[in-house]
């Protein structure tokens, strides 16, 4: 029975350390997600932004109306945008400011 004590202690320590690592990963992933209060544009390290707004059809093309600024941006992926027409969405892409177009990632 005494021979099992080190093994049980080792296993308990391993489970505890594994839990700490998972908790750390979970907390880091929560930090990277925008909160509901941060509606608008958020820049990240690759130059991509997150836009939150509603997909509308204007002049036969799907656009995103940004919730924060009320600006509209043409979406380069019209087929994907069509699936979300009229809905509030979060779009990640690169903004082509001169053409007012979001290149969806």
Q: Give the quaternary arrangement of the chains.
A: single chain
Question: Could you give the order of the helices and strands?
Answer: HEEEEHEE
Strand count, sense and closure of the main sheet? Answer: 5 strands, mixed, barrel
Number of helices: 2
Placed side by side, the strands forming the largest sheet appear as: 2-3-4-6-5
What percent strand? 25-35%
Shape: rod-shaped
Instruction: Give the domain tally.
Output: 2
The average pLDDT value, as a whole number, equals 79
Helix/strand/pairing class, anyone?
alpha+beta
Q: In CATH, what is the class of the largest domain?
A: Mainly Beta
Count of extended strands: 6
Low-confidence stretches: 31-45
CATH architecture of the largest domain: Beta Barrel
Helix amount: 25-40%
What is the radius of gyration computed over CA atoms, rounded to a whole number of angstroms?
22 Å
CATH topology title of the largest domain? OB fold (Dihydrolipoamide Acetyltransferase, E2P)
Beginning-to-end CA distance, first to last residue: 58 Å
General description of the model:
- There is one protein chain.
- With 105 residues, the protein is α+β, with helices and mostly antiparallel strands.
- It folds into two domains: 33 residues; 67 residues, OB fold (Dihydrolipoamide Acetyltransferase, E2P).
- A hairpin with a 5-residue loop joins strand 1 and strand 2.
- The termini are far apart.
């Amino acid at each position: 029975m005494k021979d099992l004590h080190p093994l049980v202690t080792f296993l308990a320590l391993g489970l505890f350390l594994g839990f700490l690592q998972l908790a750390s990963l979970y907390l880091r992933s929560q930090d990277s997600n925008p909160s509901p209060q941060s509606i608008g544009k958020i820049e990240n390290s690759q130059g991509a932004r997150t836009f939150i707004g509603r997909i509308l059809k204007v002049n036969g093309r799907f656009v995103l109306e940004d919730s924060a600024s009320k600006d509209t941006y043409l979406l380069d992926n019209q087929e994907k945008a069509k699936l979300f027409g009229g809905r509030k969405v979060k779009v990640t892409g690169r903004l082509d400011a001169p053409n007012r177009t979001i290149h969806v990632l």
